[in-house]
Automatic annotation (TrEMBL):
This is EF-hand domain-containing protein. InterPro entries: EF-hand-dom_pair (IPR011992), EF_hand_dom (IPR002048). Residues 143-178 form the EF-hand domain. GO terms for molecular function: calcium ion binding. It comes from the Eukaryota. Residues 66-94 are annotated as: Disordered. Gene3D superfamilies: EF-hand. It comes from Heterosigma akashiwo (Chromophytic alga).
Length: 283
């Protein structure tokens, strides 16, 4: 039987964790299609902005409104200026280009909205290998197709080659309750990072992690968990209160997972046979 040096009560999934986990699951479903659409939209919008800048005509403010301008913020003034603008593209190639771009952006955005909020009667949402491939690339840690197939196989209870919500939730619960360091955790680490990264920037900060860590570990242990992720001064890795990438996050949590395993009776036997714990954790 495996035992750890110190038993801590297992805290069930909190409401905040479940809400954020669901958000991440829905984001990962069809992630590769969503990213392709986003990549198609971006250059078209940039070109439309160029045309707007070139051909927008702005009306002067009403005389009675001029004296009020000193009371307004730059943001308010800019919004009001935009509201007074009208697009006047003359007949010709650029007007035709604008019409084409507008139609394409509208179509792509509609397709993206349908993926993000599937209509009633749509097939059950699932995370597939292509989605994890794209997510790994987005997070700065590219993987092979075999890599992501292995990740899915670890949690695929019904062996359909994809991950549904119940499997995703079960994966999270198993890892939260793991006392051995042996629970398959590749998808868990990605999901946990994306739960913290609510703004989808590919980086997480101290502030973004604090509320969930506090709910799970309490105030006494929260700071220790933060130092594991962000360094002892909690700002070694960047600005914004210590921002870290997915790669940096993985290095920290995988070390913690190994430490958990080495604290079990089996882990101690293996460490004794292969070398001291410090050496194993550096490998």
């Amino acid at each position: 039987m495996m035992d750890t040096q110190e038993e801590e009560p297992i805290v069930p999934m909190t409401q905040q964790e479940e809400r954020e986990l669901r958000r991440v699951f829905e984001r990962l479903c069809d992630f590769h299609k969503k990213m392709r659409l986003a990549q198609a939209i971006e250059p078209r919008v940039e070109r439309m902005d160029e045309l707007k800048k070139k051909y927008t005509v702005y009306e002067e403010p009403e005389p009675e409104d001029v004296w009020k301008m000193e009371e307004k913020t730059p943001e308010q003034l800019e919004r009001e200026r935009e509201a007074r603008g009208r697009l006047e593209i003359p007949e010709g190639p650029e007007r035709a280009e604008w019409a084409t771009l507008s139609a394409e952006v509208e179509q792509h955005r509609a397709e993206l909205a349908a993926l993000e909020r599937p209509p009633a009667g749509a097939p059950e949402q699932k995370i597939r290998p292509a989605d994890l491939l794209e997510a790994a690339r987005f997070l700065g840690r590219p993987a092979t197709r075999k890599d992501v197939q292995d990740v899915i196989w670890e949690v695929d209870e019904n062996l359909d080659g994809a991950v549904d919500w119940e499997e995703f939730r079960l994966m999270f619960e198993r890892n939260v309750g793991d006392r051995t360091g042996l629970e398959p955790a590749q998808l868990y680490h990605m999901a946990q990072f994306m739960m913290y990264d609510a703004r989808n920037t590919g980086r997480v900060t101290v502030d973004q992690t604090m509320s969930m860590l506090y709910a799970r570990y309490g105030k006494a242990k929260m700071e220790a968990k933060l130092k594991i992720l962000f360094g002892r001064d909690m700002k070694e890795s960047g600005t914004e209160g210590g921002a870290i990438t997915f790669q940096q996050y993985l290095m920290a949590v995988q070390k913690t997972q190994l430490e958990t395993f080495l604290a079990t009776s089996l882990g101690k036997k293996i460490a004794k046979k292969l070398g001291d714990a410090e050496t194993l954790m550096k490998k």
